[in-house]
Amino acid sequence: MAARIWPLVKLATKVTIAGGAVYVACDSGLLGSSEQGSEALEKAKAAVPPALEEWMKYFGLEAQRPTMPRIEFSPVNSWNAGVRWTISSLSDAPTRVSEYTSQGLQYIKDLVK
């Protein structure tokens, strides 16, 4: 009987953890707009070091931890750079296709000769 219930318990645990992770991500604004993502990143940067220190004290680890690296990352700018690159590539696509086609035809003509 327990052998039949164990896989169900494992599945329920995994689904609960995954659902909780999605809920926390939505609630904190990670799945929202880029501005909400930036705000969530700032909140995380402010909350993680104190929590780490509290847990280190709790477990008795008084070792010196490395300093937090400075992250200069803006999701808004990265998103815009990706959009610009994509639109630029799409606008250059017809020209590139004609160039590659002519190069391919020239290669085939050279092979046939």
Class based on secondary structure composition and strand pairing: mainly alpha
Terminal-residue CA separation: 76 Å
Strand content: under 5%
Element pattern in H and E: HHH
User: How many distinct helices?
Assistant: 3
Q: Main beta sheet, described?
A: none
Round the Cα radius of gyration to an integer and report it. Answer: 26 Å
Shape: extended
Would you tell me the overall average pLDDT? 83
**Low-confidence parts, pLDDT < 50 over ≥5 residues?**
none
Number of strands: 0
Q: Helical amount among residues, as a percent range?
A: over 70%
Key descriptive features of the protein:
mainly alpha, 113 residues, 81% helix
Task: Please provide a written account of the structure.
It is a single chain. The chain is mainly alpha-helical and 113 residues long. The chain is extended and about 80 Å long. The model has no long low-confidence stretch (mean pLDDT 83). The chain has 3 helices and no strands. Keywords: Membrane, Mitochondrion, Mitochondrion inner membrane, Transmembrane, Transmembrane helix. It comes from Ataeniobius toweri. This is MICOS complex subunit MIC13.
In short:
The protein is mostly helical and 113 residues long.
Topology (elements, then pairings):
Layout: H1 2-28, H2 34-59, H3 75-112
